[in-house]
Amino acid sequence: ETLEVTRGFTDWFETGFYAFSSARSGEGWSYAGSHIRPRVMAPKAWGWPVGASLSMEAGYFKPRFQETRWDLEIRPIVDWRRGPFYVAINPALERALMLYDGGSMSFQFAPGAKLSWDFTKLVTLGVEYYGNIGPLQNPSPLSQQQHQLFPVLDLNFSDDWEFNAGVGFGLNQAPD
Fold first, then answer.
1. 171 Cβ partners below 8 Å, 6+ apart?
2. Count of alpha carbons within 13 angstroms of residue 104, beta-carbon side
3. How far apart are CA 131 and CA 8, in angstroms?
4. In the 8-state DSSP scheme, what is residue 161?
5. How many CB atoms lie within 10 A of CB 121?
6. Which residues contact residue 39 at a Cβ distance below 8 angstroms, ignoring those fewer than 6 apart?
7. How many C-beta atoms surround the C-beta of residue 2 within 10 A?
């Protein structure tokens, strides 16, 4: 479970805070880590045909949930909306800043994408993709890459409040 609280300060800058938790069978709920995410974006007044933004996310995870203690993510986002149809592409770079045990501290290519359709003002259905191809300079073999799909439901309660839920599954053997 991830709780995200985001606050916009201008039409081109916002900051988000994430609190990650986990619910495992027989263990109950547990705090997993947290991140902060400042993001700059092209204002709508510029009239671009697509949305464009860049976020930098940094944060901490407890050792049982991820091999990196502290990590950094650089995520450019390009999105486009046409009526009820929405698409977003996120070619992210992730880097461990401090590891618990071994592992790589090089930048990893971790692409993401979303396709969705607004059925009503309240209900949006879609699919989200999250991947990790491995180090930029030496991509991992396909069997070690992570590729996941999440059918998702967005409930758009207002311009200020959205609920997003999805259940993911791996497209190969590597995803956790």
1. 147, 148, 149
2. 13
3. 28
4. -
5. 10
6. 13, 14, 15, 16, 53, 54, 55, 56
7. 12
**pTM for this one?**
0.86
The Cα–Cα gap between 156 and 44 comes to: 20
Instruction: Give the three-class secondary structure for 88.
Output: strand
pLDDT in tens, 13-27: 999 999 999 887 888
Tally of CB atoms within 10 A around 59:
21
pLDDT digits (tens, 9 = 90+) for 88-123: 999 999 988 877 676 667 889 999 999 999 999 999
Report DSSP letters for 113-146, one per residue.
Answer: EEEEEESSSSEEEEEEEEEE-EETTSPPPGGGSE
pLDDT in tens, 63-96: 878 777 888 999 999 999 999 999 999 999 998 8
Rg (alpha carbons) of the chain, rounded to whole number: 17
* DSSP 8-state assignment for residue 57: E
CA distance 13 to 130: 25
Calculate the alpha carbon distances from 136 to 53, 73, 111, 165 in Å.
22, 14, 12, 30
